Amino acid sequence: MKTCGATPGGPDLAGVDLANQAVIQGAVLRGGVGDGVPNGAPVGNAYVRLLDSTGEFTAEVPTNELGQFRFFAAPGEWTVVVLAHGAREELKVVAKKGEPVDLIVNI
Amino acid sequence: MSRATSLVSVAWVQENLTNPNVVLVEVDEDTTLYEKGHIQGAITFHWRDDLQDGLIRDLISKEKFEALLSKNGIANDSTVVLYGGNNNWFATYAFWYFKIYGHNDVRLIDGGRKLWELSGFPLTTDVATRAATRYVAKERDNSIRAYRDEVIAAIGKTNIVDVRSPQEFSGELFAPAHLPQEGGQIKGHIPTAKNIPWSKAANEDGTFRSNEELSELYKSAGVDFAQDTIAYCRIGERSAFSWFVLHELLELGNVRNYDGSWTEYGSLVGVPVAVGA
User: Which residue among B233, B240, B252, B255 is the active-site one?
Assistant: First the structure.
């Protein structure tokens, strides 16, 4: 199965006050090729953890049926950890207001 | 009241899926999870509709608890095995609830729904039904529940543990960062409370840390195990998680969950409040 659409990664940002929110979001896909295009199968039962700059746990959300997740973070450095059956991925990101981080995580 | 009697592994659950005396109960914060898929045979309780009185702010009455369990086919001698999403927050709250009403054999799946899924074990959408029973609950055991006046009396005297995130403790946020910002009328924490977030007691896969690690976690933060301890959070679920750690895993008898938590305390008139780390 392949996904396609104008917005790669996380859920639709319509209605999100991006000027005042430092959004970190994305989609977890299995079997994609890691080229930034969402072309794998969505992983709907992954768990995504947000760790602060010192590695402390801050929040965790499960992915939705499209493999998507979203956090409203504070501006700064964060680590996103994706856990799924047989997979663990860790990504360093920098959150900024007005500039959402939109990730494609291939596992 | 020990790791051996209060916790089961996902492997144990797999081996007991058809055990007629075992009743799996899923309790989630996101109450749509059960219908999307759950462990075979599991029933579900809705944390608000089933477990909140609804009229007054309190646990459901003994009679309503008996009716809930009877309707769902739980008997007095059933082995109730609880699990849920969000690192078992609401499942540990339900565990505490079963203890309040004196259920004999209640356990928690170590790692909860998350570890079950991460292990690749199957979920089903088949809704389980069980023959009704006639459950008889005990009177509430208030030795594991703290009320606001007891919390105020504990300030500066015995252990108060605030298990919320550092940002909620310091007064920056009302609620965890992934939830709507609602809670008490004001922000902050109960003076002299130690901030030991619930998450520090859990491993990445949702299982509990070892007893040695857990003991060190609380002791190094200044919790004196010889004294009484009250745990609180925002609405009493995360503190049920930490209550489970202290009361069930570390086997401390003198631990209570303040389920009124910050939504009550942070709305009281005239009580002392602290802010900052």
Answer: B233
Nearest Cα residue in chain A from B123: A45
Q: Which string of DSSP letters, residue by residue, matches A5-50?
A: -SS-SSS--TT--TTT-EEEEEEEEES--SSSS--SEE-TT-EEEE
Confidence of residue B269 (pLDDT cuts 50, 70, 90): very high
The answer to whether B172 contacts chain A (CB < 8 Å) is no
Residue B25, classified by CB atoms within 10 Å of its CB into exposed (0-12), middle (13-18) or buried (19+), is: buried
Mean pLDDT of the region B82-104: 96
B233 tagged catalytic: yes
> Rounded to the nearest 10 degrees, how much is the dihedral formed by the CA atoms of A32, A38, A40, A45?
120
- Break chain A down into helix, strand, coil percent, rounded to 5: 0, 50, 50
Q: What average pLDDT does this structure show over B54-80?
A: 97
Q: Indicate the pairing of strand B79-83 with strand B106-109.
A: parallel
Chain B CB contacts of A50 below 8 Å:
177
Token pair for B160: 């108060």
pTM of the model: 0.92
Segment B86-99 mean pLDDT: 96
Binning pLDDT at 50, 70 and 90, where does residue B234 land?
very high
| The two structure tokens encoding residue B185 | 């009328």
| Cβ separation B204–A59 shorter than 8 A | no
Position A60, amino acid: E
State the average pLDDT over residues B240-244: 97
Q: Helical H runs in chain B?
A: 3-6, 10-15, 33-36, 62-71, 85-100, 112-118, 148-154, 166-170, 211-220, 238-243, 261-265
**For chain B, what is the mean pLDDT?**
95
Handedness of CA B181, B182, B186, B187 (dihedral sign): negative
Q: Does B176 touch chain A (CB under 8 A)?
A: yes
How far is residue A84 CA from its own chain's centroid?
13
The end-to-end CA distance of chain A, in Å, is 15
ipTM value for the complex: 0.83
Question: CA B42 → CA B74, B124, B132, distances in Å?
Answer: 12, 9, 15
Q: From chain B, pick out residues whose CB is under 8 angstroms from the CB of A22.
A: none
What is the DSSP code (8-state) at residue B208?
A: B
Q: Minimal Cα–Cα distance from A63 to chain B, Å? A: 12
